[in-house]
Amino acid sequence: MASTFITNRSGRSAIKRPVIGSVTLSILSALYLLFFTNHTFWAKIHTYLSPYPVAIFSLYVAMSAIFSAVFIFFSAKYITKPVFAVLIIIAAVSSWFMDRFGAIIDSDMIRNAAETTTAEAGNLMTPGFALHLAIFAGIPIAILIFIRIDHRPIFGKLLWNTIGILGCLVIAGSIVAANSKTFTTAVRQHKDIAKTLNPLAPISSTYHYVSQVDHEANLTVTPTGQDAKVMPALGGVTKPRITVIVAGETGRAASFSLNGYARETNPQLKMRNVTYFPNTTSCGTATAISIPCMFSRFTRSEYSHSKALSNENVLDVLVHAGVDARWWDNNTGSKNVADRVPYFDLNATLDPKFCPTGECRDDIFLDRLDSWLDGITKDSVIVLHQLGSHGPTYHLRYTDEFRKFTPDCQTAELANCKDSEIVNAYDNTILYTDHFLASIIDKLKARSAKLATGMIYASDHGESLGENGLYLHGAPYILAPAEQTHVPFIVWFDDDFAKSMGLDAACLSKEAKAGGRSHDDFFHSILSMMNVSTSVYDPSLDVFSGCKRRPAA
């Protein structure tokens, strides 16, 4: 490596700048990213290929050759430094979330990040994250800016770059061919290997997300359930019928005492005669997927984001039937579900009583729900989209009154807390959600003389709290642990609401324990609660149909 000097106006040497060949810089940059920002990838390789040490060593060489070929390809005057700097930043950011939280950055994760709020994103911008970026991106980029790159003349550069790229590919190809059986088997059995290769996996995921967004920009909405109508209430019930839909956030069934959790996290709900469905799975592992899926008529196997955008959802069907439907949000938005119904963003109020940190606690709903209930004159549905148990700032989701499990993690830097402290903080959020749901039930019961009332609650997805080294949520569904996909599902109704549906509550309690349920059932069960008849209703996906004297048509 040669050196050059920058001289000041007096002619004296001021700064010594090293000079490095473009191919050499490409190889060094490639090796830096491969070995310093791919801890998760290599940890998985050593775990899955532990019986084959020779194959592991061979993969080190092959991946070094592949990465070097990619970087040499971008080794051209005027673009080398900008491209390398961008790759370093992407790798540094991705490695933080992969290594700290066990995150896999697929296109759904990119979508979730793109649709988040400033406050939610701010919870992840911790001092630890800043230090990580400074070390793994700031220092390498500073070095990259400081050095001078020695580029050959254009034809010589094309020749040597081509030789370098072909040489690397020959080395990689030979190694892969010699170990094809081992490598192929590992990749097929462990799909998370390729999804953690940094920065190639995040870049690929971003490309897929951008492609999806481009396609979705031209979609038109197809009407759904325009034939919908409300059937007459049974049992002589004539008063308006009300359903409160609570779209939960990050509630995992494993932490609900209603589900058998050893800790008492549902002391209030267990006194409210609710029906709990213990074997319920989510449509996705992130809000951006699960929320539109829950409210769509598509099952998880049929669902895609473009289908959700191009078809009306259950709120639209309710409106077609003449039911008043609206959405109140204390999260990151309705994900287009409420595009055609009245929408109220409670976060935007920044009410200091409930929003001391820029995010609002869920009791902001309770403060405003009374006035809405007292103004009801017709069959109505309201969706309350919780902030719930969203991490990593679990400690901000509850008040001191519900700080029962201690010591609890009081920071977004989960690495600075013991797993037991993280679990304590999370369990306090469930205790608070228990109070929130019980308070809604109490408000509904207080109006039973004038309204027939019901509530349905399901969380959008679960949460990992350190099990198998995973934290938070958003894992690709095929790889996601039960902690992220097994969610709580609760219904409650007063006597008149049950009568108006023709529902046998004892039968429902028995049915709830008998079989598995999922977000697939949400659309049809909501229609059933409101006695809505439509051609898009499917009784096999209605949790109430087996216990109704007159199933919805």
Can you tell me about this structure?
The chain is built from 20 helices and 16 strands. By secondary structure, it is an alpha/beta fold. The radius of gyration is 28 Å and the shape is elongated. The chain has helices at residues 22-36, 39-48, 53-73, 80-101, 107-114, 118-122, 127-146, 154-178, 180-189, 192-195, 200-216, 287-295, 305-310, 314-320, 363-374, 419-445, 482-485, 495-501, 505-514, 522-529, and strands at 2-7, 13-21, 148-150, 229-230, 241-248, 275-276, 280-281, 324-329, 343-345, 380-385, 452-459, 464-465, 471-472, 489-493, 517-518, 532-533. The strands form 5 sheets. The chain has a 7-stranded mixed beta sheet, sandwiched between helices. Strands 1-2-3 form a 3-stranded mixed beta sheet.
